[in-house]
């Protein structure tokens, strides 16, 4: 669910992209236009983009596990596009209606997307220029809710067992450690944590001096945990004394980038809108990742179950390969 929501929000920040009103795929009686497909593709490419994927030529020549980067992006985009429609249709067939609270949740997602464009008029302009309907945005937001309802149903009927989760961990340990980080930090505030109103320059200078001093002390060998409990102004410390476990987009960007820049057991410092973070990166263990692993096992079960439901409800899927090949 998190990944789907990230796709939605990331796409909301994109500039205009190419796309017409042709059909990229058909799911049951629902068409996915090229404009809608390009919406997903642009977001996927944005998430995949790195120093080696800057130009159209890079996307055509660079490979990811033996496939051209652009082909990987195209496949991921059409997979998500199709699944979003499927989640809505299958949930409807199963009688999984949204509650009022869930409808509100979907509405709030849409509001975030509109805000991503700056104004309702800019949002409408984007839709018009890219042959995307307002109903398509509604469907994407609703599909996120329906995905959760389907995974909840499956978790109850076919829960992930300890054996399945541990096997997944063993087979995907390296990938999990790359996707999810674990870190402790000593936070020295330079702004009000609720309003983000910056402190006076004098208080900010004092915070910088203290942060620099603490960084030197931990690097010199003083106990990180002792200093963390003595000096950190993180209000979440009491509930996260062993550190935070997080995936992409779950922490402020500066914190994530700083964590990614060091290895297990190493220490660094960065500044975010909250203040100075003295960070110690830790190696996540099975117990730290169990929640994420369970979600992934259930998602795999859902992929398999979706195929059963497709046959049960005669939900045919047709992909227009020519449209995919032409997309950039």
Counted beta strands: 9
The fraction of residues assigned to DSSP E strands is 5-15%
What is the averaged pLDDT score? Answer: 90
Computed CA radius of gyration, to the nearest angstrom? 23 Å
Show unreliable segments: 1-6
Main beta sheet strand tally, sense and closure: 4 strands, antiparallel
Instruction: State the end-to-end distance.
Output: 26 Å
Give the count of helical stretches: 13
H/E element order: HEEHHEEHHHHHEHHEHEEHEH
SSE class: alpha+beta
Helix content: 55-70%
Gross geometry: globular
Strands side by side in the biggest sheet: 6-5-8-7
Structure overview:
With 328 residues, this protein is α+β, with helices and mostly antiparallel strands. 59% of the residues lie in helices and 12% in strands. The protein is built from 13 helices and nine strands. The strands form three sheets. It has a four-stranded antiparallel β-sheet, with helices on both faces. Strands 2-1-9 form a three-stranded antiparallel β-sheet. Helix 5 packs across helix 7. The longest helix has 27 residues, at 286-312.
Topology:
Blueprint: H1 2-12, E1 23-27, E2 30-33, H2 34-48, H3 56-61, E3 63-64, E4 67-68, H4 69-93, H5 100-116, H6 120-129, H7 134-157, H8 162-179, E5 181-189, H9 201-219, H10 224-231, E6 244-246, H11 253-260, E7 267-271, E8 275-282, H12 286-312, E9 317-319, H13 321-326
Helix pairs in contact: 1-2, 1-5, 2-4, 4-7, 5-7, 7-12, 8-12
